[in-house]
Amino acid sequence: MFGSVTGATASSQTDWGEQLINQAATQSIRSLFTSSESVEVAVRCYPSSKLLQGSIDSFKMSGKRLLIRRRFLVETMSFETDAVAIDFRSILGGQVRLKQPTQAIAQVVLSEEGINKAFEADLVKKRLVNLETPSLTELSGGAPVSFTDVQVELLPENTLRLRAQADLGDRGEVPVQMLTKLSIERRRRVCFQDTQFEAAEIPQQHQETSQRLTHVLADILNNMVDLDRFDLDGVVMRLNRLETSGKELIFSGYAQIHHFPRHS
After folding, report:
1. Which residues of 233-256 are buried (b: 16+ CB within 10 A; e: fewer)?
2. Which of 17, 31, 39, 240 is the most exposed place for a label (fewest CB within 10 A)?
3. Which region holds residue 181: left if phi is over 0, alpha if psi is between -120 and 50, else beta?
4. Other CB atoms closer than 10 Å to residue 99's CB: what's the count?
5. Which residues face 29 on adjacent strands?
6. Is the previous residue joined to 144 through a cis bond, with omega within 30 degrees of 0?
7. Cβ distance 51 to 45 under 8 Å?
8. What is the DSSP letter of 86?
9. CA pair distance 141, 107, nearest whole angstrom
10. Taking the chain, what is the end-to-end CA distance rounded to the nearest angstrom?
11. pTM
12. How buried is 138 (Cβ within 10 angstroms: 0-12 exposed, 13-18 middle, 19+ buried)?
């Protein structure tokens, strides 16, 4: 009887501990995002008594409709770790502190809608406007060139169609349209490869200029989509593969978690 009471007490303590970890981790992860539809955290620990020493078998997080920096919408994000060592005392204060960094399998899903909204963000727009590289100014007569009204269409086999307007100052606007293949470089950069100019929807008088603008824009994009510019507090993402599926772009890779963000 004494043993069963002791076991019940230990189980109650660890259940209480799991709830504390789930609550603290959920609040910490929510603080990474401007807003979120849902964030769920699940801790697995067996035997449960290990939890009192800060030892966890795995830690899993999943979130939906996560907004980063007010403009970058992630449709879903999930990651799952192997064994994790935490400072259990930090949980009592409503925080989660890792004893050492940990690595997690990660998946991030972007929607076509979310990608198009991202092109409206100041962080992206400032890299597409008032450009003065020689390959552009020779087309505009020396005036700065801006790419606006960017629209992306996701297609099968990691293909993307992109439409935009190029503002050439006094020489007017020229439509741009391309097909390009998406790939990953150095596990952190999204690259636009095998870019093809699509002339069918471009007026005849603009086609030569539009073709040149298309390849310049592809070069700009290649130097722009770098995960290191979008790192979350304490979390570094690295990519192994990507694929288009319907109107979604799916990234698979891993997350290096150095610390959980503190929250008030």
Report:
1. ebbbbbbeebebeeebbbbebbbe
2. 240
3. beta
4. 13
5. none
6. no
7. yes
8. B
9. 45
10. 43
11. 0.83
12. exposed
pLDDT digits (tens, 9 = 90+) for 35-49: 889 988 888 877 777
Question: Which H or E element spans position 76?
Answer: strand 72-81
DSSP string, 242-255: EEEETTEEEEEEEE
Which residue stretches of the chain are H helix? 2-30, 88-92, 112-118, 122-125, 134-140, 207-222
Tokens at 120, concatenated: 């409206």
Amino acid at 156: P
**Cα–Cα distances in Å, from 217 out to 88, 176, 199, 227?**
51, 9, 15, 19
Tokens at residue 21, please?
A: 């970890």
Taking only the tens place, the pLDDT of each residue in 87-126 is 877 777 777 788 888 889 999 999 999 999 999 988 889 9
Task: Please identify every stretch of the chain with a pLDDT value under 50, giving residue numbers as ranges.
Answer: 1-14
Q: Where are the alpha helices (DSSP H) in 31-81?
A: none
Q: Could you give the CA distance from residue 98 to residue 85 in angstroms, rounded to a whole number?
A: 6
